[in-house]
Amino acid sequence: MKKSLSLSKVYRLLEPGPVVLVTTAGKGKADIMAMSWHMMIEFEPPLVGCVISNRNHSFSLVKATRECVINIPTVELAAQVVGCGNTSGRRVDKFNTFGLTPVAGSLVKAPLIHECYANLECKVVDTKMVATYNLFILEVLKAWIDPSKKHPRTIHHCGKGVFMVAGRTITLPSKMK
After folding, report:
1. What pLDDT score does 167 carry?
2. Number of domains in the chain
3. Is 42 left (phi over 0), alpha (psi -120 to 50) or beta?
4. Does any domain span residue 175?
5. So what's the pLDDT on residue 47?
6. 73: domain CATH number?
7. HEC letters along the chain
8. 51 with 37: CB under 8 angstroms?
9. What is the pTM of this model?
């Protein structure tokens, strides 16, 4: 029998995708934040909606520079992802603290994270919903991927320190007959 679920826990049912690491750069310093509230909005050009709390250090950096990189880690980086999510870039150099390697982007000043499976260089193209919902619309300008990882095992946040790991991959017919 089903039971009522607290509305404050609904987000745990709808987490949209893998936890990502968003990198920014400003005032001579790079930062990393963990984020799981993101969604694809358009195929081409690729548009991504990202909710970044205005309490996060990265919020002001994205707002000021209008660019960032979405880095997609695999399960092997889970400890670093959680560490980045539990510390503030105002006080901690997360690249040094968590042993991550910054790599220069080709189109944005924010660094890519070398250890991540994929990296998406982005620019902010719409801020109409930032004041109300902290929702930035990003256009992916350049995408990088490690071709050696065919089906990467990403991590997905379920709330309260619980994560699921992407698992078995299946193939189903994609066209109706």
Report:
1. 82
2. 1
3. beta
4. no
5. 96
6. 2.30.110.10
7. CCCCCCHHHCHHHHCCCCCEEEEEEECCEEEEEEECCEEEEECCCCEEEEECCCCCHHHHHHHHHCEEEEEECCHHHHHHHHHHHCCCCCCCCHHHHCCCCEECCCCCCCCEECCCCEEEEEEEEECCCHHHHCEEEEEEEEEEECCCCCCCCCEEEEECCEEEECCCCCCCCCCCC
8. yes
9. 0.92
